[in-house]
Please model this.
Amino acid sequence: MHVPELKGKVVIVTGSARGIGQAIAERFAIEGSSVVLADLDHDGIESVAKKIITDGGSAIPIATDVAIEEQVDALFDTTLNEYGTVDVLVNNAGLISPVKHILDVDKAWWDRLIGANLTGTFLCARRAAHIMANKGEGSIINMSSGGATKAHRAFVAYDASKGGIEAMTRALALDLGPYGVRVNCLVPGFIDTYGASEEVREKQGAIVPLGRMGEAADLAGSAVFLASPDAAYITGHRIVIDGGVLVQQRSANVDTFPPSQFPKLD
Ligand SMILES: NC(=O)c1ccc[n+]([C@@H]2O[C@H](COP(=O)([O-])OP(=O)(O)OC[C@H]3O[C@@H](n4cnc5c(N)ncnc54)[C@H](O)[C@@H]3O)[C@@H](O)[C@H]2O)c1
Model:
Protein backbone atom coordinates (compact mmCIF):
# COMPACT_ATOMS: atom_id res chain seq x y z
CA MET A 1 0.00 0.00 0.00
CA HIS A 2 1.33 3.43 -0.89
CA VAL A 3 -0.19 6.71 0.28
CA PRO A 4 0.27 9.55 -2.22
CA GLU A 5 -1.14 12.04 0.33
CA LEU A 6 1.98 11.56 2.48
CA LYS A 7 4.23 12.97 -0.24
CA GLY A 8 5.78 16.23 0.99
CA LYS A 9 4.46 15.82 4.54
CA VAL A 10 6.89 16.57 7.37
CA VAL A 11 7.31 13.63 9.72
CA ILE A 12 9.36 13.64 12.95
CA VAL A 13 10.39 10.16 14.11
CA THR A 14 12.09 9.97 17.51
CA GLY A 15 14.41 7.09 18.33
CA SER A 16 15.11 6.66 14.61
CA ALA A 17 18.82 5.79 14.72
CA ARG A 18 17.95 2.09 14.63
CA GLY A 19 15.26 -0.54 15.12
CA ILE A 20 11.57 0.25 14.75
CA GLY A 21 12.11 4.03 14.49
CA GLN A 22 14.55 3.58 11.61
CA ALA A 23 12.15 1.28 9.76
CA ILE A 24 9.27 3.74 10.21
CA ALA A 25 11.40 6.70 9.11
CA GLU A 26 12.60 4.85 6.00
CA ARG A 27 9.03 3.88 5.12
CA PHE A 28 7.78 7.50 5.36
CA ALA A 29 10.71 8.53 3.15
CA ILE A 30 9.62 5.94 0.57
CA GLU A 31 6.15 7.55 0.70
CA GLY A 32 7.83 10.85 -0.25
CA SER A 33 7.63 12.51 3.18
CA SER A 34 10.38 14.76 4.52
CA VAL A 35 11.69 12.94 7.56
CA VAL A 36 13.25 14.45 10.67
CA LEU A 37 15.36 11.88 12.51
CA ALA A 38 15.68 12.57 16.25
CA ASP A 39 17.78 10.39 18.55
CA LEU A 40 20.47 10.47 21.24
CA ASP A 41 22.69 8.55 18.83
CA HIS A 42 23.91 11.24 16.45
CA ASP A 43 26.10 8.96 14.32
CA GLY A 44 23.17 6.57 13.95
CA ILE A 45 20.72 9.19 12.66
CA GLU A 46 23.37 10.68 10.38
CA SER A 47 23.88 7.34 8.72
CA VAL A 48 20.09 6.71 8.42
CA ALA A 49 19.70 10.21 6.89
CA LYS A 50 22.51 9.50 4.39
CA LYS A 51 20.86 6.22 3.39
CA ILE A 52 17.47 7.92 2.89
CA ILE A 53 19.01 10.72 0.82
CA THR A 54 21.05 8.25 -1.28
CA ASP A 55 17.80 6.41 -2.00
CA GLY A 56 16.27 9.67 -3.28
CA GLY A 57 14.41 10.77 -0.13
CA SER A 58 14.57 13.81 2.10
CA ALA A 59 15.80 13.61 5.72
CA ILE A 60 17.62 15.60 8.36
CA PRO A 61 19.22 14.24 11.55
CA ILE A 62 18.77 16.28 14.76
CA ALA A 63 20.55 14.94 17.87
CA THR A 64 17.95 15.03 20.64
CA ASP A 65 17.38 13.68 24.12
CA VAL A 66 13.58 13.63 24.20
CA ALA A 67 13.61 13.68 28.02
CA ILE A 68 15.11 17.21 28.04
CA GLU A 69 12.69 20.04 27.31
CA GLU A 70 15.28 22.41 25.77
CA GLN A 71 16.43 19.70 23.36
CA VAL A 72 12.84 18.93 22.33
CA ASP A 73 12.28 22.66 21.76
CA ALA A 74 15.44 22.77 19.62
CA LEU A 75 14.20 19.73 17.64
CA PHE A 76 10.89 21.41 16.80
CA ASP A 77 12.44 24.86 16.18
CA THR A 78 14.99 23.38 13.76
CA THR A 79 12.28 21.36 12.03
CA LEU A 80 10.16 24.50 11.56
CA ASN A 81 13.20 26.38 10.18
CA GLU A 82 14.13 23.57 7.78
CA TYR A 83 10.74 22.27 6.64
CA GLY A 84 8.23 24.92 7.80
CA THR A 85 5.79 22.66 9.66
CA VAL A 86 5.16 19.28 11.32
CA ASP A 87 2.42 17.03 9.94
CA VAL A 88 3.17 13.75 11.72
CA LEU A 89 4.98 12.95 14.96
CA VAL A 90 6.04 9.38 15.69
CA ASN A 91 6.92 9.27 19.39
CA ASN A 92 9.00 6.10 19.17
CA ALA A 93 12.12 6.78 21.32
CA GLY A 94 12.21 4.41 24.23
CA LEU A 95 14.44 2.75 26.78
CA ILE A 96 13.94 -0.83 27.94
CA SER A 97 17.00 -1.33 30.08
CA PRO A 98 18.38 -1.53 32.68
CA VAL A 99 15.97 -4.35 33.51
CA LYS A 100 15.87 -4.56 37.32
CA HIS A 101 13.77 -6.13 40.06
CA ILE A 102 11.86 -3.67 42.26
CA LEU A 103 13.99 -4.72 45.27
CA ASP A 104 17.13 -3.59 43.43
CA VAL A 105 16.17 -0.16 42.11
CA ASP A 106 16.55 3.45 43.15
CA LYS A 107 14.74 6.60 42.05
CA ALA A 108 17.38 7.44 39.44
CA TRP A 109 16.45 4.21 37.60
CA TRP A 110 12.76 5.19 37.66
CA ASP A 111 13.50 8.76 36.54
CA ARG A 112 15.66 7.58 33.63
CA LEU A 113 13.07 5.20 32.17
CA ILE A 114 10.07 7.42 32.84
CA GLY A 115 12.01 10.41 31.48
CA ALA A 116 12.87 8.81 28.14
CA ASN A 117 9.57 6.97 27.62
CA LEU A 118 6.78 8.97 29.25
CA THR A 119 8.12 12.52 29.69
CA GLY A 120 9.75 12.37 26.27
CA THR A 121 6.44 11.38 24.67
CA PHE A 122 4.67 14.22 26.50
CA LEU A 123 7.26 16.89 25.60
CA CYS A 124 7.24 16.03 21.90
CA ALA A 125 3.44 15.67 21.77
CA ARG A 126 2.99 19.07 23.43
CA ARG A 127 5.15 20.88 20.88
CA ALA A 128 3.52 19.02 17.98
CA ALA A 129 0.05 19.76 19.41
CA HIS A 130 0.55 23.53 19.16
CA ILE A 131 1.76 23.35 15.55
CA MET A 132 -0.90 20.87 14.43
CA ALA A 133 -3.84 22.50 16.29
CA ASN A 134 -3.03 25.81 14.59
CA LYS A 135 -3.20 24.14 11.15
CA GLY A 136 -6.31 22.14 12.05
CA GLU A 137 -4.73 18.79 11.16
CA GLY A 138 -2.04 16.36 12.14
CA SER A 139 -1.34 12.86 13.40
CA ILE A 140 0.56 11.87 16.53
CA ILE A 141 1.57 8.21 16.84
CA ASN A 142 2.88 7.01 20.21
CA MET A 143 4.72 3.76 20.88
CA SER A 144 3.33 1.50 23.56
CA SER A 145 4.12 -2.13 24.38
CA GLY A 146 2.34 -5.29 25.45
CA GLY A 147 3.67 -4.24 28.89
CA ALA A 148 0.88 -1.64 29.08
CA THR A 149 -1.64 -4.52 29.27
CA LYS A 150 0.29 -7.47 30.73
CA ALA A 151 3.32 -7.14 32.98
CA HIS A 152 6.92 -8.16 32.32
CA ARG A 153 9.02 -9.29 35.27
CA ALA A 154 11.53 -6.66 36.48
CA PHE A 155 9.98 -3.99 34.20
CA VAL A 156 8.13 -1.84 36.76
CA ALA A 157 9.20 1.52 35.30
CA TYR A 158 8.97 0.40 31.65
CA ASP A 159 5.50 -1.11 32.02
CA ALA A 160 4.31 1.94 34.00
CA SER A 161 5.67 4.22 31.27
CA LYS A 162 3.86 2.29 28.54
CA GLY A 163 0.59 2.18 30.51
CA GLY A 164 1.00 5.93 30.91
CA ILE A 165 1.59 6.32 27.18
CA GLU A 166 -1.67 4.50 26.37
CA ALA A 167 -3.61 6.65 28.88
CA MET A 168 -1.91 9.77 27.52
CA THR A 169 -2.85 8.75 23.98
CA ARG A 170 -6.54 8.70 24.94
CA ALA A 171 -6.34 11.97 26.89
CA LEU A 172 -4.47 13.75 24.07
CA ALA A 173 -7.03 12.44 21.56
CA LEU A 174 -9.83 14.11 23.55
CA ASP A 175 -7.99 17.41 23.95
CA LEU A 176 -6.89 17.59 20.31
CA GLY A 177 -9.84 16.03 18.46
CA PRO A 178 -11.74 19.33 18.17
CA TYR A 179 -8.65 20.85 16.48
CA GLY A 180 -8.49 18.12 13.84
CA VAL A 181 -5.46 16.41 15.37
CA ARG A 182 -5.58 12.61 15.78
CA VAL A 183 -3.57 10.71 18.39
CA ASN A 184 -3.13 6.93 18.36
CA CYS A 185 -0.56 4.39 19.41
CA LEU A 186 1.12 1.25 18.15
CA VAL A 187 1.68 -1.78 20.37
CA PRO A 188 4.60 -3.91 19.17
CA GLY A 189 5.05 -7.51 20.31
CA PHE A 190 8.38 -9.39 20.20
CA ILE A 191 10.20 -7.43 17.51
CA ASP A 192 13.73 -8.54 16.63
CA THR A 193 15.60 -5.23 16.59
CA TYR A 194 18.92 -6.57 17.90
CA GLY A 195 19.64 -9.45 15.49
CA ALA A 196 18.57 -12.32 17.74
CA SER A 197 20.23 -15.70 17.21
CA GLU A 198 18.34 -18.37 15.28
CA GLU A 199 17.85 -20.22 18.57
CA VAL A 200 16.21 -17.19 20.24
CA ARG A 201 14.10 -16.42 17.17
CA GLU A 202 12.84 -19.99 17.14
CA LYS A 203 12.11 -20.04 20.88
CA GLN A 204 10.33 -16.67 20.86
CA GLY A 205 8.56 -17.42 17.60
CA ALA A 206 7.14 -20.64 19.06
CA ILE A 207 5.00 -18.72 21.56
CA VAL A 208 3.58 -16.35 18.93
CA PRO A 209 0.32 -17.46 17.23
CA LEU A 210 1.71 -16.33 13.85
CA GLY A 211 4.78 -18.47 14.57
CA ARG A 212 7.59 -15.93 14.30
CA MET A 213 9.16 -12.91 15.93
CA GLY A 214 8.28 -9.57 14.35
CA GLU A 215 10.64 -7.44 12.26
CA ALA A 216 10.99 -3.67 12.65
CA ALA A 217 9.41 -3.25 9.22
CA ASP A 218 6.22 -4.96 10.51
CA LEU A 219 5.45 -1.69 12.35
CA ALA A 220 5.97 0.64 9.39
CA GLY A 221 2.73 -0.06 7.48
CA SER A 222 0.57 0.64 10.52
CA ALA A 223 2.41 3.91 11.21
CA VAL A 224 1.84 5.02 7.61
CA PHE A 225 -1.82 3.96 7.84
CA LEU A 226 -2.44 5.96 11.05
CA ALA A 227 -0.88 9.03 9.42
CA SER A 228 -2.94 8.62 6.24
CA PRO A 229 -6.39 9.93 5.24
CA ASP A 230 -7.67 6.32 5.47
CA ALA A 231 -7.37 6.71 9.26
CA ALA A 232 -9.19 10.09 9.25
CA TYR A 233 -11.87 8.86 11.70
CA ILE A 234 -9.53 6.97 14.06
CA THR A 235 -8.28 8.64 17.23
CA GLY A 236 -7.49 7.60 20.79
CA HIS A 237 -6.91 3.99 19.77
CA ARG A 238 -4.14 1.46 19.46
CA ILE A 239 -3.07 -1.02 16.83
CA VAL A 240 -1.50 -4.16 18.26
CA ILE A 241 1.24 -5.58 16.02
CA ASP A 242 2.31 -8.69 17.89
CA GLY A 243 1.45 -11.74 15.79
CA GLY A 244 -1.45 -12.48 18.17
CA VAL A 245 0.45 -12.66 21.49
CA LEU A 246 -1.88 -10.45 23.53
CA VAL A 247 -5.05 -12.31 22.56
CA GLN A 248 -3.89 -15.75 23.61
CA GLN A 249 -4.81 -17.16 27.04
CA ARG A 250 -1.92 -19.65 27.25
CA SER A 251 1.33 -19.60 25.32
CA ALA A 252 1.75 -22.36 22.78
CA ASN A 253 4.33 -24.31 24.80
CA VAL A 254 1.94 -24.85 27.75
CA ASP A 255 -1.34 -25.05 25.84
CA THR A 256 -3.45 -28.22 26.12
CA PHE A 257 -3.87 -28.06 22.34
CA PRO A 258 -0.48 -26.80 21.06
CA PRO A 259 0.21 -26.10 17.37
CA SER A 260 2.04 -29.47 17.15
CA GLN A 261 -1.43 -31.14 17.41
CA PHE A 262 -3.06 -28.96 14.78
CA PRO A 263 -4.48 -30.75 11.69
CA LYS A 264 -1.86 -31.48 9.07
CA LEU A 265 -2.63 -30.04 5.65
CA ASP A 266 -2.43 -32.28 2.55
N1 LIG B 1 11.51 -4.26 20.02
C1 LIG B 1 10.44 -4.70 20.68
O1 LIG B 1 10.21 -5.91 20.79
C2 LIG B 1 9.46 -3.72 21.27
C3 LIG B 1 8.33 -4.25 21.89
C4 LIG B 1 7.40 -3.37 22.46
C5 LIG B 1 7.64 -1.99 22.39
N2 LIG B 1 8.75 -1.51 21.77
C6 LIG B 1 8.92 -0.05 21.74
O2 LIG B 1 9.20 0.38 20.42
C7 LIG B 1 10.11 1.48 20.46
C8 LIG B 1 11.34 1.16 19.63
O3 LIG B 1 11.87 -0.08 20.07
P1 LIG B 1 13.20 -0.68 19.42
O4 LIG B 1 13.23 -2.11 19.75
O5 LIG B 1 13.33 -0.24 17.99
O6 LIG B 1 14.30 0.07 20.33
P2 LIG B 1 15.85 0.31 20.06
O7 LIG B 1 16.51 0.20 21.37
O8 LIG B 1 16.32 -0.55 18.93
O9 LIG B 1 15.88 1.82 19.55
C9 LIG B 1 15.45 2.84 20.38
C10 LIG B 1 16.09 4.13 19.93
O10 LIG B 1 15.63 5.16 20.82
C11 LIG B 1 16.73 5.97 21.15
N3 LIG B 1 16.52 6.64 22.43
C12 LIG B 1 16.47 6.06 23.67
N4 LIG B 1 16.29 7.01 24.60
C13 LIG B 1 16.22 8.19 23.94
C14 LIG B 1 16.05 9.53 24.36
N5 LIG B 1 15.93 9.87 25.66
N6 LIG B 1 16.00 10.51 23.42
C15 LIG B 1 16.13 10.19 22.11
N7 LIG B 1 16.31 8.94 21.66
C16 LIG B 1 16.36 7.96 22.57
C17 LIG B 1 17.93 5.03 21.18
O11 LIG B 1 19.16 5.74 21.04
C18 LIG B 1 17.62 4.09 20.03
O12 LIG B 1 18.18 4.56 18.82
C19 LIG B 1 10.41 1.74 21.94
O13 LIG B 1 9.55 2.74 22.43
C20 LIG B 1 10.11 0.41 22.59
O14 LIG B 1 9.74 0.53 23.96
C21 LIG B 1 9.68 -2.34 21.22
Remarks:
- The chain has one domain: 4-261.
- The chain has a mean pLDDT of 97.
